[in-house]
Amino acid sequence: MGKRKQMTLKFYQNLGKLFYAVAAVDKNVEAVEFAKLKELVKKQWLNLDTIEDTFGSDAAFQIEIVFDWLNTQGNLNAKSCFDDFIAYKNKQNHLFTDTVKHLILKTAHAIAASFSGINKSELIFLANLDRELKNT
């Protein structure tokens, strides 16, 4: 019997790690990057499924919650967050449909471009993300 393609809180939490890594890869997370993430969660991620957290909120808000928590910690690096996301993706690759992968890339690019365009470290990061998602 195949695995069901049902998103979980852990799925969204790992996306929060990934999108934090996009913003933090240049060692500086800007407020505009978080604002762009919040905008995209509301416009695109909330419509992905109907999963809710224990408080009855849409599970997609976990993306924002994890991003914000990681940002307040200040000592976590982008590489470890990216590696955590990739490890999760490799274990749960059935969740990463073409639609989900496209949405991930679209969100990551928008976050990277939201502050002064895409810099070299963000460009390398996005290329690595694209490569990893193609391996799903």
Helicity, as a percent range:
55-70%
Taken together, the total number of domains comes to 1
- From the helix content, strand content and strand pairing, which structural class follows? mainly alpha
User: Helical region count?
Assistant: 6
Provide the residue-averaged pLDDT.
Answer: 91
Radius of gyration: 14 Å
Show unreliable segments: none
Q: Give the N-terminus to C-terminus distance in angstroms.
A: 20 Å
* DSSP strand tally: 0
Q: What is the secondary structure topology, with strand pairs?
A:
Blueprint: H1 9-24, H2 31-45, H3 61-73, H4 78-91, H5 98-113, H6 120-134
Helix pairs in contact: 1-3, 1-4, 1-5, 2-3, 2-5, 5-6
Task: Give an overview in words.
- This is Co-chaperone DjlA N-terminal domain-containing protein.
- It comes from Yeosuana aromativorans.
- The chain is mainly α and 136 residues long.
- It has one domain.
- Helix content is 65%, strand content 0%.
- It is built from six helices and no strands.
- The longest helix has 16 residues.
- The protein is globular.
- The two termini are 20 Å apart.
Core attributes:
6 helices, globular, 0% strand, 65% helix, mainly alpha, 136 residues, Co-chaperone DjlA N-terminal domain-containing protein
